[in-house]
């Protein structure tokens, strides 16, 4: 598999993830804008019910749990990105070092060939 295909699939995957994530965020914001209607005795109304929508009693707890879950997910994602970046940089560094060694080897071969050619020019073979 060539690197072009790898980058193509990586970009396509990230593009699909981004589009899905954006749609999910838009849907989530629409649902957050709609206040839940009080239906049972477990829910309480805000002190001034004409200005604030009704919210369940466990709303803050659920919100804190969601924030903690998102914070944990963000930390995990950040760590994963850092590890991938480090691995990528290590790979690039190793490839660069390998290319540098290969270039040094080819340079040494070229210099040896030039030296041999110079020797031949200085001391041409005698056919007599």
TrEMBL record:
Residues 1-19 form the signal peptide. Residues 105-122 have a biased composition (Basic and acidic residues). It comes from the Eukaryota. Keywords: Signal. Residues 37-57, 105-128 are annotated as: Disordered. This is Uncharacterized protein.
């Amino acid at each position: 598999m060539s690197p072009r295909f790898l980058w193509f699939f990586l970009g396509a995957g990230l593009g699909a993830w981004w589009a899905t994530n954006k749609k999910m965020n838009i849907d989530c914001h629409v649902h957050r804008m709609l206040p839940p209607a009080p239906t049972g005795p477990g829910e309480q109304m805000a002190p001034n019910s004409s200005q604030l929508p009704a919210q369940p009693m466990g709303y803050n707890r659920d919100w804190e749990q969601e924030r903690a879950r998102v914070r944990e997910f963000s930390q995990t994602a950040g760590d994963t990105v850092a590890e991938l970046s480090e691995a990528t940089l290590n790979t690039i560094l190793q490839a660069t070092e390998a290319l540098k060694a290969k270039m040094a080897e080819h340079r040494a071969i070229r210099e040896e060939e030039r030296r041999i050619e110079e020797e031949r020019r200085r001391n041409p073979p005698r056919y007599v």
